Amino acid sequence: MARNLRKGKFITIEGPDGAGKTTQAEKIVQYLKSKGKRVISTREPGGTALGEQLRKVLLDPEGSPVSNAEALIYAACRAQLLERMVIPALREGFTVVCDRFVDSSLAYQGWARGIGINRILQLNKWVIGSYWPDITILLDVDPAVSLGRLVGGRKDRLESEALEFHQKVREGYMKVREMFPDRIRIIDASQPADEVFRQIVAELEKAGVVE
Ligand SMILES: Nc1ncnc2c1ncn2[C@@H]1O[C@H](COP(=O)(O)OP(=O)(O)OP(=O)(O)O)[C@@H](O)[C@H]1O
Ligand SMILES: Cc1cn([C@H]2C[C@H](O)[C@@H](COP(=O)(O)O)O2)c(=O)[nH]c1=O
């Protein structure tokens, strides 16, 4: 395993589809920049040329990767993102803000798809090595509410899953949070976006990510 030479902080944002991750990630980036931090933002699946190609495969409503294949493709995207973007940026002292990361795999593939959180964790321990996030903001909200926010436009392959699947995703996140209580900070994402952001900033300050 490569020695961890990180100088910057690694922040990930998690939650069910439509929880407000992208909205909050953008606010966090602006906030950190206003504090004089050098920041890069990215997302999973995606963030690299290969990752964006694989994203199309994973989210294509006509596509069919499920179960083990799906878990492995998400892990491949993660490996590429870490090697090409996240690790070099952290070593240069940038703060990295990532919209979804390993906890999505644990909740979606590990729990909701039924592969097993521990099996997905083993796979991802190999992919991530020592580059685990410093802090993860988990936006918790009833999927009946968050999916309702995604009105209009064509639903992707995961968004098209039944409400029961998304309820299992939420349940999965709660289990993952129990496994990593220090890293994962939960925020009630049913609140207005500005209040959600206020609470995120408080967590980032508590964690020493910003002064
Ligand atoms: N706290 C909030 N309350 C109500 N609506 C919100 C809130 N946060 C974001 N939204 C709105 O909900 C929609 C989805 O938000 P956003 O894209 O940030 O969610 P997401 O979690 O990134 O979604 P996805 O999982 O599909 O990528 C957007 O229209 C956004 O403006
Ligand atoms: C990283 C990751 C993502 N997913 C799922 C979760 C979402 O339904 C999509 C990504 O779409 P978004 O608009 O960017 O939220 O992919 C997953 O199942 N497993 C993962 O590891």
Radius of gyration equals 16 Å
Poorly predicted ranges: none
Bound molecule types: adenosine-5'-triphosphate, ligand LXEULUCI
At the fold tier of CATH, the topology name is Rossmann fold
Between the first and last Cα atoms, what is the distance in angstroms? 31 Å
How many domains would you count in the coordinates? 1
Please identify which CATH superfamily we are dealing with: P-loop containing nucleotide triphosphate hydrolases
**Averaged pLDDT, please?**
95
Tally of helical segments? 8
Order of helices and strands: EHEHHEHHEHHEH
CATH class: Alpha Beta
Number of strands: 5
Give the helix proportion (percent range): 40-55%
Q: What overall form do the CA principal axes indicate?
A: globular
Major beta sheet, strand line-up = 2-3-1-4-5
CATH architecture verdict: 3-Layer(aba) Sandwich
Write down the oligomeric state.
single chain
Provide structural commentary.
The chain has a single domain, classed as P-loop containing nucleotide triphosphate hydrolases (Rossmann fold, 3-Layer(aba) Sandwich). Helix content is 52%, strand content 12%. The protein has 8 helices and 5 strands, in the order βαβααβααβααβα. The longest helix is centred in the middle third of the chain and has 26 residues. It starts with 9 loop residues before the first strand and ends in a 5-residue tail after the last helix. The model has no long low-confidence stretch (mean pLDDT 95). The structure holds adenosine-5'-triphosphate and ligand LXEULUCI. Adenosine-5'-triphosphate binds next to helix 1 and helix 8. Ligand LXEULUCI binds next to helix 4. One of its GO terms (cellular component) is cytosol. Keywords: ATP-binding, Kinase, Nucleotide biosynthesis, Nucleotide-binding, Transferase.
